[in-house]
């Protein structure tokens, strides 16, 4: 029974990965079940056991958009906020599902059908920024709601541009984005102790994986 459940989990993941690659390559409208079946070693019945429509596939991709993998408690809540953005920047180029969640969010048709997860990301950031404010990590004028909203918009824009102008990695560009943002929102004592290195996310993930092993 356990082996069957594990096989089902692997099959579902393979289907989602393949669907995500199609969404990334041709968009939501042009993606078809037939094209998906041509890419994976799964029968039509096996596919329908997990997903019966393209709409279900898109929703499943978006359900995985908000992920905090690799995020660890830090001395400063502002560092945790930075870490979320850096980890996502590291993972998006490597994970088709995360890239597809962005593609679906910016595509007018799929956005109209399924919405986006941007409000969820804003809520996550807002919560951390409120905690940072309450701990005295932010400058007095900073509005957590405004900053949370602007970072999600800026992060998404940087990702889209970096995809087509790949002279620098997304991690490098998001690191540069924080170099512009943080001096305007972080108190001086905290600012000097924040790590915004483009390599920080990789280190955090390596630590998380070593603890699991």
From TrEMBL:
Coiled coil spans: none
DNA-binding region boundaries: 32-51
Keyword match Protease: no
Family matches, as InterPro entries: ArpA-like (IPR047923), DNA-bd_HTH_TetR-type_CS (IPR023772), Homeodomain-like_sf (IPR009057), HTH_TetR (IPR001647), Tet_transcr_reg_TetR-rel_C_sf (IPR036271)
Keyword field: DNA-binding, Transcription, Transcription regulation
A Pfam family reported for this protein in Swiss-Prot or TrEMBL: TetR_N
Record-annotated HTH tetR-type domain positions: 9-69
PANTHER family found in the cross-reference section: HTH-TYPE TRANSCRIPTIONAL REGULATOR YJDC, TRANSCRIPTIONAL REGULATORY PROTEIN
Protein name per the record: Gamma-butyrolactone-binding protein
Species for this entry: Streptomyces spinoverrucosus
